[in-house]
Every structure is written in structure tokens, then in C-alpha cells.
Amino acid sequence: MKSHTTSLRWKSVVGTARCVASDRCAQSGCRRTSTATGCAGATSCPGIGPAGCSPYTICRWDRSPVALPAVATSPPVPGRLVAIGSIPSGFEPGACPVGTAFSGFSSAKEGMRLLGRPMGDAAGNGPGGIDVQYFEKGRLECNPEEPSQEWQSLLGLLASGLIGRGVELPVGGDASSMTDADLARLRVAGLRIPPPDGFGGGFALLDDGSVFVPSGASLAPGAGHVVPPLFWAFLNATTVFPGGWLHDVGPPLTPVAEVIVSKGPETGRRILVQAFQRTILTFDPLNPSDYQVECANVGTDYVRSGGVDGSAGG
Known about the structure:
Layout (H helix, E strand, L loop, with lengths): L7 E7 L2 E8 L32 E5 L38 H9 L2 H5 L2 E6 L8 E4 L2 E5 L10 E3 L2 H8 L9 E2 L3 H7 L17 E2 L5 E4 L9 E4 L1 H7 L9 H4 L7 E8 L2 E10 L4 E4 L9 E3 L2 H7 L10
Helix pairs in contact: 3-4, 3-7
């Protein structure tokens, strides 16, 4: 794995096999298993659990490990291919233009980075009859009654839908050690952590630069998850999320997990994944620097999983 520049220190656990990995080092040439100066304590953390556990690592940002419940009945296979449905006719990525209701939003902001290519025409058959359009990375919903222009286009709850339905589609790559069904298992209350001492609601910036966010859109005091700095910076980029992170993305649903994925011919890539209400964020250190943090293709997955009917825009 080539060197990269984000320095992270994770305490991790896979099933009952605990490990500590310092695998993202600032020094040039420092690799995952390196013990070079400046990367003291960097160790291999394979991310493969014992028999009966899925091959991904639950990561905590300088926090105590949490146990990952067994989620498989047989020894895991890293980068397993998962059967996926075909894309219905009319939903081929890029075959239709961005709808009039969403063109201003898409062109004024980083539309390709946030949304990807459109999938199907815009149509007025979304929740409550509103105009919606599917994209590779989500579904835009038009809410013209909102007084703020930044709130008139909103990502739908596709990530929550995929996780709630336990869809067996790979997350983060063409093949992946994690599916949406696995994310559903990570959504359990037992994997949430208590808030910092004296927390009164909202969110809390921690000493290491990570951010504690409680569960629930009200951000009331209670247990929640830690969002690492690399994701928090992306969530607060107004060129990507103009309505603010809480409106556009929502609170985190899961802890951060390390996942093994394949992308095209490249196999064995290790990425970080964290699910939120309206999207799933991934961090891939081998991507170009501006695209190391991305939104996963939840729109494509939702369409493939049968979440829409056979008519484009449905």
C-alpha cells in the first residue's frame, strides 16, 4: 500500500480478536506494517475475524474497543462477491439529464461528488408525491416549501432504507467484506458509546479532533457514535452539503468500520466505512487526495435492490 498522509490511531476489535493499528502515517514511505521512526507502534491489524465473525474491524478513535457480535455462520471470505440485481431499464447511469428542479442545485454545488450521475428522469412520485430523482449516490427530493434555498433539495433516506431492509449488497466496492445487512448489525444500541462527561446535547469536539454525535436527529444528550476528523471535515464542506451536515446527512447510525474491498481489478483494499441516516461515507487512502472521502453509491444499490418500481423516476 502506498504512503498516505492522514495520521490515525485506532483501537479496534474483530470478533474477540483485539488489535491496535496505527496504519495511516504522515511520514513519506511509511506503510501499514512499518515501524519506521514516527510510526511507532504501527502493527498489522488484518481485519479478519475468527470463524463465525465477518471480516471487518470496528474502529474507535482512541477509545476502548467494543465487542463485535458474530454475524456469520461460517468462516468469512474477504471481498466476497454478493449477487446483485440488474438496473431496471431507464435507470442506466447518465442516460437521463438532471431534472429541472435539481439542475441549479447540482450545478452550483459539487453535484458529481455528492450525487454522481443521474439514474432515470425526475418524476413526481416520491414520498408524498414530491419530485424526486435518483442518482448513483442517492435520491434528491424537492421541497419547494422550504424557505431556505439550501434546504429545498434534500437527500432521501436511502442509506437508512438499505440498512433497515438488510440488503445483501457490497458496501464500498464491487466486492466487499461488508454488506448493508452487516451495517444493520452494527446499528444495534450496544455499539453506541456514552457521551463525554458534562455533555448537554448537540455534538462534542473531542481532544483528538474527532467529534461525538448522539443518536437521533434532535441531538439530545445520550449515547451515540464518534465521527473521525476526516469524515467530519467532509461533512462540514458547504460545497458538498450546503444545507449543513445534520440536514443533508443526519447523525451517524454505526461506528466506523474497516472493510476489505475490491475495485475493478484491484483487490484487498482497506477502507473505512461509517453509515449515516442519508448516506454512507467511505475513506480510501488509495484514491486521489480530493476523493479519499466519498459518499457510497447508495442510489445505485437502492435501484438494484428493487427499492423502486420499473418506471424511471419511480
